[in-house]
Amino acid sequence: MMKKKWLSVLSLGLLAVLFVLLVFINNQLLSKYRIDLTEDKVFSLSGGTRNVLTSLDEPVTLYFFYSDSATTGMTKMRNYAARVESLLREYAQASGGKVQLQIVDTVPFSENEDKANQFGLTGAALGNVGEQIYFGLAGTNLLDDQFTIPFFDPKNEQFLEYEISKLIYRLSNPDTLTLALVTDLPVAGGQDPLTGRYTGPMVFYQQLAQLYNIRIVNSTADGFPEDTDVVLLAHPQALSDGLLYAIDQFAMHNGRILAFIDPHYEGNALSSLQQVGANASSFPLLKAWGIKADLTNIVLDAQLAFDLRNENGAIVKHFGILGLTAAQLDRNDVITANLDSVNGASFGALETVKKAGLSMHTLIRSSVNSGLTNADNYAQTLNPVALHRGFGGNTETYTVAARYRGKARSYFSAPKDPAKAATYEGQTDNLNLVLVADADMLSDLYWVQQTAFFGDTVFTPFANNGDFIVNAIENLTGSDALISIRSRGTYVRPFERVKALETAAEGKYREQEEQLQEELIQTEQKLRELQGQQGQGGTIVFTGQQQEAIDKYIARRVEIRRELREVRYQLDREIDRLGDKLKIVNIALAPAVLTGLLWLLAFIFKRRAGKAYRTETQS
Question: What is the DSSP pairing of strand 341-345 with strand 293-294?
């Protein structure tokens, strides 16, 4: 008996030692090995991010500012903060020591809060006592360059990894980038050929000038600066052979290009003179790269058409001037995900890529109520109503902006200059092009409103054209690894059954709630009318009958509000019941089943041990 007791004590001791040893081994040796079982791999880093971390030449420090103590009770925010912190720790671990992570709890009115303000992080107001919640990221490098994510918005969770990786990439490449703007348009301002007046720079150009070193390259130039990071083409026409060669080889050497081409550019003042034929762009490199853009026809869209006032004062729809909404923008691409509208005119159509090794990803498309019309006829059509004729029953959609990645062959079969033969590339496996079949969206007319304010001109955007341009260039200026980072899934998975119950409950009770709301509004209006009757001297005088009516309406208002509370209670009741069932399953049933399985295993092992002991005793 004593021997059996000592064996039990020894076994427990060995189990304790084994437990401590396994924990030590796990923390010290196995912590870098993890298995991500989530559907969208939200807790693991993509290959692009790992390439960004591998390319770090010097250490960077990340400061994760989060108001942990001030967000007590904010379950959704705390869950998302835990998700962000977990991902940041994954960055630090995968970097091999090049990313140093510091977690900073920004307690209100503390030094940590002052530090967050110094970095320029955005604080969300909490209550009316001056407290703020901080939930952002700041990064620094050895040269004291710093970049920030002012606030982690849960709505942008699918781009969380991209935003963090972009910040780290910028820390390792902090220099201002150079943008070659290939165009003959008066983007930097100039003299209006019709009025003779000087016009200021286009708004999109002013925005880009604040972010990049811009070098304007006209069509007759023989090339562009060698330190160019991104090429932007705006309505290219009659480009010189030297410039075409420079753009082609820039693409073949994995350069990044954003191009706005147009079957009929209407932003040019001369186009209003109704010249013969369309004012079309010309960019012959596309065909050699395996890309087909239809610049002989224009996309007409009855659903997205702008309302214009004609010479008679009547409102007519212009099928060629389109207001593209969020439904036409790709919500899963970082360029267009957070945009609400993009406006333009006389869009061309981009055809589906059929070349092996080259991928096409649509960014913007027309609605299903679209059709094509000849660009030359469109350019000479004065009355928008003429575009309506024969436009019934259209069910086609057209791609008007897309991203292209993959293999492409040079437009030039040999180097243009034998002296540059050593740098000539005949093909690339990594073409990186964003192509938009409209250049009118660059014009101020379609997306900003100008107003005079104390002698200055104020530009107020009414569409996201400028945001689209900046997003595209910002995305292209990143490394290939950064551009390849896909949008990730969300951490919080929806309960489909709960959503179905919510929909059914809303359909059941919403009509009743609306009727009660309407009755409440009418009741309060009657009360205001009765209580607003004043006698002489500003005093309120009510007859007995009026006072009785007021009391009646007040009582009815109380009753309506009670009924509204009851309707809303019934609206949530079924969902609460499902929640209770889920809690019972998670809190009680699941542990009970697990405990039962453990007891069953213990019983089985005990029986086997007993049989083995009896067999050994008998032998």
Answer: unpaired
pLDDT score of 535 more than 50? no
Whether residue 3 lies inside any domain: the answer is no
- Which residues, in sequence order, are bridge partners of residue 147? 139
The answer to whether 363 touches 333, Cβ cutoff 8 Å, is yes
Q: Where do we find the tokens 């006389």? A: 346
Return all residues near 109 (Cβ < 8 A) that are at least 6 apart: 131
| Per-residue pLDDT band at 5 (split at 50, 70, 90) | low
What is the domain range of residue 111?
47-172
CA-atom Rg of the chain in angstroms? 33
Residues 143 and 221 in one domain: no
What is the value of pTM for the model shown?
Answer: 0.68
Contact 257, 250 (CB under 8 A): yes
Q: Could you tell me the pLDDT band of residue 619, with boundaries at 50, 70 and 90? A: low
pLDDT tens-digit readout, 107-123: 877 888 889 889 988 88
Same domain, 67 and 89: yes
E strand residue ranges, 34-172: 60-66, 99-105, 123-126, 131-141, 146-149
| C-alpha distances in Å from residue 111, one per residue of 72, 124, 136, 138, 351 | 20, 17, 16, 16, 57
How far apart CA 318 and CA 325 sit, in angstroms, is 16
165, 155 in Cβ contact below 8 A? no
Q: Are residues 163 and 185 in the same domain?
A: no
pLDDT number for residue 536: 44
Q: How far apart are CA 159 and CA 37, in angstroms?
A: 20
Q: Using the 3D structure, point to which of 430, 446, 476 is the last residue of a domain.
A: 476
Residue 68 belongs to domain with CATH number? 3.40.30.10
CATH number at residue 201: 3.40.50
State how far the Cα of 501 lies from the Cα of 611, in Å rounded to an integer: 55
Neighbour count for residue 377 (Cβ, 10 Å): 14
Rounded to the nearest integer, the mean pLDDT of the chain is 81
Following DSSP, what letter does each residue of 402-447 receive, concatenated?
EEEEEEEE-S-SS-SSGGGGGG--SEEEEEEEEEES-SGGGSGGGT
CB atoms within 10 A of CB 174: 13
- Residue 139 corresponds to which tokens in the numbers above? 């990064």
Helix (DSSP H) and strand (DSSP E) numbers for the chain:
14, 23
| Nearest alpha-carbon partner for 403 in 359, 439, 469, 339 | 359
Q: What are the CA-CA distances from residue 494 to residues 81, 325, 490 (Å)?
A: 18, 26, 9
Tens of pLDDT, residues 85-101: 989 999 998 888 999 99
Alpha-carbon gap, residue 28 to 44, rounded angstroms: 20
At residue 103, the 3 state secondary structure works out as strand
pLDDT at residue 427 is higher than 80: yes
| Res. 129: pLDDT tops 80 | no
User: What is the per-residue pLDDT for 328?
Assistant: 95
Total domains in the chain come to 3
Mean predicted confidence (pLDDT) in 410-417: 90
DSSP state of 578: H
Distance CA 564, CA 570 (A): 10
Mean pLDDT, to the nearest integer, of 196-220? 90
* % of the chain surpassing 70 pLDDT: 71
**Amino acid letter, 12:** L
b/e for 345-369, b at 16 or more Cβ within 10 A?
A: bbbbbbeebebeebebebbbbbbeb
Q: Is residue 350 part of a domain?
A: yes
Other C-beta atoms within 10 Å of 223: how many? 17
